[in-house]
Design brief:
Layout (H helix, E strand, L loop, with lengths): L1 H19 L1 H5 L13 E5 L3 H9 L1 H4 L11 H18 L1 E2 L17 E2 L1 H14 L7 E8 L2 E10 L2 E5 L7 E2 L6 E6 L7 E4 H18 L1
Parallel strand pairs: 2-3
Antiparallel strand pairs: 1-9, 4-5, 4-8, 5-6, 6-7, 8-9
Helix pairs in contact: 1-7, 5-6
Organism: Bradyrhizobium betae
InterPro entries: Transglutaminase-like_Cys_pept (IPR010319)
Keywords: Signal
Length: 212
Amino acid sequence: MSWIIKSLVAIGVASAGAAAKADALNDGLPNQATRAFISEYDNALAPLQFVKFCMNYDAECAADSAERTLPSGDRAMSALREVNSSVNASISPMQKSTNPMVARWTVSPSAGDCNDYAVTKRHQLIEMGWPKSALRLAVVLTGGRGHLVLVARLADGDFVLDNLSSSVRPWNAADYEWISMQSGGNPHFWVAVGERGERLRATRLAMLRTVE
């Protein structure tokens, strides 16, 4: 449980520091939707279900104990397509409780929801030798509802594995509002992302300037 407390402390420290550098970081960057990689901003609270998932599947949330290397080019994309397709076919869709106190993310169930699909795909790719830093769970909104997907970070961009799609798509080809995503530096931490993360940072900057 100590990592949970450390995460909460880190959120406050990192948010203040990151917000102070926001103007410099964003100068000259292209529009969000044209970027190959999802823009990351200040630390964010991890979903409660994710915290529970890490308590039940500790190894899934631990950092890599040894250096791992991404497959190259076509091999990487082929593996992503195979895992996305096979997991989508192996888990029967089932509506589960959205109550954070009851909901539970499960690896490789016979039936499950978007959360189970996403963590199962991440688990299988890790078992294939992929680095955890390149496999990041992400919360998005679709039709106003929360949804979990897996983002694979390759050399040429971020790609989405999704139980709602049979294809592996670039992140900006998925019509989602991006909310937050696992940090690449530490699997326990999450960061605000996309336009929402940009707006949150701008709000924090404005608050800091008001205090000054």
